[in-house]
């Protein structure tokens, strides 16, 4: 069966069913939405990524469509009462346009900033980037994908020449003799993905997991390495050291397809496994077993995820694992390679078409004169009118309302009050703005601070495309129209562009926007010129790059060459360095943060779904029994986790699955339980990724 053509929406006819994809994570599980007797049902749909499975979040996704807290009226802050009050669309759009004009008139174009999200469709991400550069003419746009995949993206580009999360279809995982997961917990974050791992096990494959916690995924592994948070880079270098000494290097591949190996060989020669054991706590025997499982396998895949990436040295850590994969000759070999497990629903597409501070559509660089000429021609504006690069997300948010920073911010599809590191500081920056505008369908914690809240459509009310973790472009299909009073993000941008007298049109029809995106991306690294909605509908999506509508797409990359100027991959020597913040007498423990199965990102959506709230009602702090005993904490006691930046409070969960020197807290909750009140805002110097995964804390029992 083709992907969804049978159930696709028909123009002009209210559809009863739509074959679409889950609104949440990058697995983009196939589902059917069916409306019958006023109720909307979610049915799983066979698709190559989820193979008929859904997790609890997907099953319950439709509950938000008619949720009592759904925003259906624009809100404007009343200066007298300070409250958000209902207002007409004309009133709020006039207010936003006037506010933008005032701020830019007084402080320059860059005084208005835009903050996007990795859940926006390709069309919306593209339109948002165009709106910032053409309607606002500000250099300040970035997005919350900076929190998720930016380190793997930067490492992929500098080593392999491209950033595509998985450079092969997910089904290849099932064919790998050895699969190494680093800082990834798909059993909780993407449960249907485990079907591919089950295939791998049935074929006799080995699963090795590197994670400081004994996660649900680690429990299924043949071997679990449990390093101290922040030492993955050292572990990777030790694995390469062992691969060298035991003769596992694919010397023909290294000679024919790569550059720079000698410098890496010299660097890892000094990474003695015994020293790495002392640093990381991973026994030498486990390092050796891992290197041998990778080095002797006929096929092997190494995957990283947020656990390895969300560090101030995330780019170098990913680079170390790419070095290992290249030395073993994995990228481009069938059933083998390196990949990153993208997190947000459109984390991949959202970082390809212009939401990033330094980027134009098609993954072009905004400082590349040829790229500026090409995109400006498509947009119908002079290239010289396009602004230059902005700054990464944290720097942008941290500059808001300061003398040199933006004084107005437009937020689409993001909730930085919960998701930003050192969140109390960012919350205070948002309060300092002259104008904060939030487009959302629920009153997120960020919307609560806004001067204007714009109620926008949900996923089941709009058509578009998403690009999943495999680089496969998919169709999101509308089941129904948005409720009265609600507009699409594209319509909001078009309305504002008109009020701001933008020099070009902003289409509101997503198919028209996608056609423009195809032209803008043509010839770029993420080339969508040959991707059409019809072609996606006729098959199970289209993998980029796909430059020609009549030509093939690209499910597997790197078979013959890497997309670098000379076709060769690059090794980069990288060395371990400590976390940005080390433990001390006052802050003697490491905090690491992450997700739980029944919640998603900042929780704005999933905390409002009854079944998910019951499954995961609140935050918690995981402590090892030895640590709990030392602190006099019993399971369920309220504890306070204190860092140099703030504190969070939540009940203790005493469990042997965490290291005694480390505590864990999930980041989905706001208020006193907000994990990001505590996290460190140190960022990777290359990617701008904050160090969410490690900071120094102390834990105290809260006396009742
Ligand atoms: S795994 Fe991800 S895409 Fe699939 S149902 Fe769950 S949240 Fe949705």
What topology emerges from the helices and strands here?
Blueprint lengths: L16 E5 L8 E7 L2 E6 L11 H4 L15 E3 L6 E3 L2 H19 L4 E5 L5 H15 L4 E3 L6 H11 L17 E5 L3 H4 L4 H9 L3 E5 L12 E3 L6 H14 L5 H7 E2 L1 H9 L3 H8 L3 H12 L4 E5 L1 H4 L4 H14 L9 E4 L6 H4 L8 E2 L3 E2 L3 H11 L13 H7 L8 E5 L3 H4 L3 H9 L3 E6 L11 E4 L8 E4 L4 E5 L12 H11 L10 H12 L11 H6 L3 E2 L25 E2 L18 E6 L15 H6 L5 E3 L1 H7 L6 E5 L4 E8 L7 E5 L28 E7 L3
Parallel strand pairs: 6-7, 6-16, 8-9, 8-12, 9-10, 11-22, 12-13, 16-17, 17-18, 23-27, 24-26
Antiparallel strand pairs: 1-2, 2-3, 4-5, 4-18, 14-15, 19-20, 20-21, 23-28, 25-26, 25-28
Helix pairs in contact: 2-19, 3-19, 3-20, 4-13, 7-9, 7-10, 7-11, 7-13, 15-20
Bound molecules: iron/sulfur cluster.
Please, could you describe this protein's structure?
With 704 residues, the chain is of the alpha/beta class. The protein contains 23 helices and 28 strands. A seven-stranded mixed β-sheet has the order 5-4-18-17-16-6-7, with helices on one face. The termini are far apart. Residues 4-13 have low confidence and may be disordered. Residues 22, 24-25, 27-29, 50, 54-55, 57-58, 190-192 line the site of iron/sulfur cluster.
